Amino acid sequence: MACADLGNLTVVLDLADPEQDDYGPGTYTYPSDGVFAGGNFDITNFQVGYDEENIVFKFTMGGPVENHWTSPNGMSGLTLDVYVDTDGDGQGGVALLPGRNLALAEGYAWDYAIHAEGWTAGIYTPGDPDPVQLATASEFFILADAGQQRVTIRVPKAILGDTPEAWRYAAIVMGQEGFPSSGVWRVRDVSVAAEQWRFGGAPEGATNHTRVLDMVWPAVGEQEAWLSAFTISDKSQTELTAEDFATIEMFGVE
Ligand SMILES: [Ca+2]
Ligand SMILES: [Ca+2]
After folding, report:
1. 158: CA distance to ligand 2 center in Å?
2. Each residue of 151-185: pLDDT tens digit?
3. Ligand 2 mean position to 229 CA, how many Å?
4. Tens of pLDDT along 30-78?
5. What integer pLDDT is reported at residue 94 of this predicted model?
6. What is the 128 CA–ligand 1 centroid distance (Å)?
7. Could you say which ligand is closest to the alpha carbon of residue 222?
8. 88-130: per-residue pLDDT in tens?
């Protein structure tokens, strides 16, 4: 569902992400098909704000936000996740949504996961074994603006609450995949060598490397260090747990 920009956004967090770090741990390359253009997966800025009714997240990208596969909300190739820790109590989700192959560092835990993509967007709470859907795509708003290379996500305060300045966040981008590998929630695989529809640059013999291309973190070099720090496993996707994954920290207003 589209939503007009009412222009009364109050921004509580505005972070620049390094340019051209859309390579995950530092090695990933784009699939070879021509729909993947330079900068598609490069987050350059991330904002959190609010308006009267909604908490608002804005991703600005370093390349085109295109709609090659004609999604109703204008975002086809991208999957954007935002994880929110609303209470800092250390209780909640540790592994990110299935297939991201990332977990939160010790002391962080997510209470809500917002999965933005062109068709089956949703909002989740932690669950065992899988996260539980709290809201479907029709219950929040995603607007892709090709001209501004920006995706805006508006989630009603009735779902998340209304103190975004006190929360902590993680924000990541992956390739959207309508035909994902088993156990992967609709994000594109990363192989050792890039293929027409797969990213390249994965370590040999691994199943537990991340599918994240870029994550929001202003300090240069931290993303590369964190996403590379895991012990290679060849377990099947559904056997992998948070302990098998590289870990990242969350950020907040302070
Ligand atoms: Ca970036
Ligand atoms: Ca980054």
Report:
1. 30
2. 999 999 999 999 999 999 999 999 999 999 999 99
3. 16
4. 999 999 988 999 999 999 999 999 999 999 999 999 999 999 999 999 9
5. 97
6. 32
7. 2
8. 999 999 999 999 999 999 999 999 999 999 999 999 999 988 9
SS (H, E, C) the chain: CCCCCCCCCEEEEEEECCCCCCCCCCCCECCCCCCCCCCCCCEEEEEEEECCCEEEEEEEECCCCCCCCCCCCCCCCEEEEEEEECCCCCCCECECCCCCCEEECCCCCECEEEEECCCCCEEEECCCCCCEEEEEHHHCEEEEECCCCEEEEEEEHHHHCCCHHHCEEEEEEEEECCCCCCCCCCECCECCCCECCEEECCCCCCCCCCCCCEECCCCCCHHHHHHHCCCCCCCCHHHCCHHHCEEECCEECC
Q: Which pLDDT belongs to residue 8?
A: 86
The pLDDT value given to residue 137? 96
With tokens 């302990």, the residue in question is 243
CA of 42 to the centre of ligand 2 (A): 7
Side chain identity at 138, as an amino acid letter? S
- Convert 58-84 to b/e letters by CB count within 10 Å (16 or more is b): bbbbbbbbbbeeebebbbbbbbbbbbb
Q: How far is the CA of 182 from the centre of ligand 2 (A)?
A: 27
Q: In DSSP terms, which residues pair with 205 in a beta bridge?
A: none
Question: What is the number of the ligand closest to the CA of 223?
Answer: 2
Structural domains in the chain, sorted by start: 10-248 (2.60.40.1190)
